[in-house]
Every structure is written in C-alpha cells, then in structure tokens.
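User: Can you help me understand a structure? I only have the sequence.
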Amino acid sequence: MAMIIRALTPADIPAYRDIRLESLRLYPDCFGASYEEQRQLPILYFERNIASQSLQHTMLGVFEGEELIGLCGVSERENRTVLLTQMYVKSRCQGAGVGVALINAAKHTAAEKHQARVIELDVYPHNLAAKRRYEQAGFQVTDQTADELIMTLRLP
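Assistant: Let's start by predicting it. Here is the structure, written out as tokens:
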C-alpha cells in the first residue's frame, strides 16, 4: 500500500470531517465524543485548527492516492508535552501498517514541529487492540482516570 502522510490543510477539511464522523459512528465506545453531537456541529474542533493552520495543533492524515484513510492529532500541552488524539485508521486498511506509520509520523511531528519530549494519550481499557499497538510503539501506562488509561512515551 503506497501511503503519503502529511499535515492536513484547509482543502482537506471535508475529507477530515467525513473520516472523523465515520470513526465516531463505527466505534462509538472508542472515542470521547458522540457521533450525533459532532455531526450536528457546524465546525468541528480540529476543523478550526486545520483551517487556521494552528501552530499548536497538527492533524496528520494518511492518504492512499487521494483518499484519506487515517488520522492522528498532535496537540501541544505544557512542559514540552503533546497529546495524541483522534487516532483512527479505516477498517479496510487496518493491519497494513498504517497505524504504525501514523504513530511514527506523530513522534516525528511532536519532536520536530512541537519540540516535545513527551507524548501522552488516553485510551479506554477495553480497547485492547489500540492499547497493544501503543505498547508496541513504546508507550507505557503511567496513570488512569475513572474511564481511561493514560499512556506516555518519552522521546529521545
């Protein structure tokens, strides 16, 4: 599978919205947002960041040809830490290395663009496939809330 991974631009917003809503519709128990609520919003949170080309937020997209097949957001926090959000790969592309490529691109973006030393993410404990993928990428569970595991990766 030939993939291109890059930061999304304003021209990508319609494709972003489609795939983001797809992720919420198909996997409602894996994301902290409701499909119905998000679908009704005129502008999604990351659509605003993509439109403004925010320096603090980067939405990475994986493209197969012209089709957006995966997403991963990188958002600055304090103390040279970034938060990985909205990680999603279309079902038909799972198991083909797209998720691994996205995580690697997110690590690079975190270090180079955001000068981060730490990447954090939240994952639901029942989402075993995602948790396993993050562990394979070097993330470790470092904390938990009532609903989610907090996973952390220290960058070199």
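Now, to help you interpret it: The chain has one domain: 3-154. Residues 100 and 131 are 13 Å apart (CA to CA). Let me know which part you'd like to focus on.
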